[in-house]
Amino acid sequence: MIDEKKFKRCKDDIIKLKKEISKVVIGQSKVVNGLIRATLSNGHVLVEGIPGIAKTLVIKALATASGCKFNRIQFTVDLLPSDIVGVTGYEKERGFFIVRGPIFTNFMLADEINRAPPKAQSALLEAMQERQATIGKETIPMPLPFLVMATINPIETSGTYTLPEAQIDRFLFKLHMSYPKKEEEKLIIEKNISLKKFENYKILPILNPDRIIEMQELVKEIGHTDKIKDYITDIVEATRKHKKYNIKLGEFIEWGSSPRACIGLFIAAKAEALMNGETFITPQHIKDVAHDVMRHRIILNYKGQA
At 150, phi and psi to the nearest 5? Predict the structure, then answer.
């Protein structure tokens, strides 16, 4: 049974967290909810959207309101793995030593991740999956919580690299960030980051690393039934065996979702339930997270891409 006091405190903290983020981010409630849900699920996020819609800002605001250490890496074509994880140095007085890279943080923003070559992107794989990084001969654990939040620009393909499928699959969510509404854009004109410094918005640290870990553990206590597991596996299997489920659009799928989709739907539905103040997973919770969990795990064939 979930401790009611812990449950209520968690709900209150999420409301406060959203309020702090709203000080600087106008609208984009779906993306904000997705990022908070990913934090509760202990999962990484890929955010796709055109330039100028506050992708970087919303992630920085979340990290600040979460009271966690935040680092940003601007991915470029000349980025090296050592620029991400760090290097081994040597001095006569102290001998060999390790200089840790910016990846050793709680929230790591990988800005325009598709601009770096595969060799640099591969430096993230161990950290994202194992929560550790190897520098020289030493393997160092990441500080917890550790979340990679990457951005990608869909309209500029010149000088970009396709992300490896193995890396994409390690992102729990892929969120689509769109244009703000007209009324929201009026507010953005007056309340934008160009007129003020980020620090002027005075975002308060509602959480801290230990509190986030507590909330992640509380997510695991959200209840479920065998029917929910059947529902999840049926959805994922339908992406692989469309004829069995009589899904016509399945003819455009080359490869269906991996087992990580089942795991992602399960843990994300638990986080969604917690955010909605419910202690049990329902089919609606799975529907609410399905697009974010599965859109990057279904590979279309040539006909589907056309």
Answer: -105, 150
